[in-house]
Amino acid sequence: MPEPERDDTRALTVVMHTAFFVLLAASVARYLARHADGPHTPWVIALSALLAALYVLGPVLGTRPSPRRLTWLGLVVAAWALLVVLAPSFAWCAVPLFYTGLRTLPPRAAIPLVAVLTVLAVAAQLSLAGWPDPNLLLAPPAVAAVATTVFVVMQRQAARRDALIDDLVRTRRDLAATERREGTLAERERLAREIHDALAQGLSSQRMLLQAADRLWDTAPDTARDHVRTAAAIAERSLAEARRFVHDLTPADLAEGGGLLRALHAVAERETTPALTVRVHTEGTPPGPLSAPVESALLRIAQGALANVREHAAATTATLTLTCLDDQIVLDVTDDGRGFDPRTRTAPEAAGEPRGHGLPAIRARLRQLGGTLTVESAPGEGTALSAAIPLEPR
Hints:
Blueprint: H1 3-35, H2 41-57, H3 67-86, H4 94-104, H5 107-129, H6 134-216, H7 221-246, H8 252-255, H9 259-271, E1 277-283, H10 292-313, E2 317-324, E3 328-335, H11 358-368, E4 372-377, E5 383-390
Parallel strand pairs: 1-2
Antiparallel strand pairs: 2-3, 3-5, 4-5
Helix pairs in contact: 1-2, 1-4, 2-3, 3-4, 3-5, 4-5, 4-6, 5-6, 6-7, 6-10, 6-11, 9-10, 10-11
């Protein structure tokens, strides 16, 4: 229960308990003032003391309908009923007892109890008045009905509010768990893209160079050593890339300065081998400096696309074309390799092999920037990949 609601309930309980003892004391004083020498006076005093003692025990037993609580409530009602029979003025104590019964019992049991208490109170007041007073006949039931209705409605509203709060807390907990899962998946996807576009490319180049060095070690040791030194340089760059993408930093080629075009030339130079020639072309000039996320995405797309060309296309030439328009920037990667069916994303020669992460990673990068990817290819006819990213208006 929220703290403000708990304070309100405590205040209402204190008021009702105080009202009960005030009414009980007033009823005893009234009876003694009029019937001090009556034959029932000792019984009235004893029952009043017993009722007060029983009522004091109520808070100790709690408010839930346990067997001890129900026994206590039965004894309180019985003591009050005997007092009403002996002294009708004690009927006014029924009002706080309404509250006690409604707090202790569920509505289906509390409402009949309130009805019984009301009937006893009306009968006592009518016997005290000596004639069928319409006010005494109708007023107590009306008060009991209003008090019971208000209390039951407030309880039901509180129950619905508690249920709503529980639903909100549960929904917030589920939302937090979903956000954590989505964050974990997004980070895994980012790492997968970076590994494919940066580390996998470097490892592949190192493998090719080391294999070539192994073949030439005896016949052309100088060339073999050059291959080993180049592989070591690539390993050093790959290590720097790994450190950068773990911290989600700018790619090393961009961090060295010179912008996207220089970085593309550096990538093309590294990817150029005796078996594959990579060229870079530019068309147009961007309307303004590109943002870091756009430059990083285009560079990673170029790296990933060239890695696919090297691993799967068996191409002899590949071209990176950067086209700058007023509202978008487009990177085209074309090759003269074996091609594939874009609907299956599987090259004929690679059928049955696991699909790579290249195209899904490129699409994921573009989706984050509102871009689009177009792939045109056919078996034996090469591949053309076009990545377009919209530019923010200046």
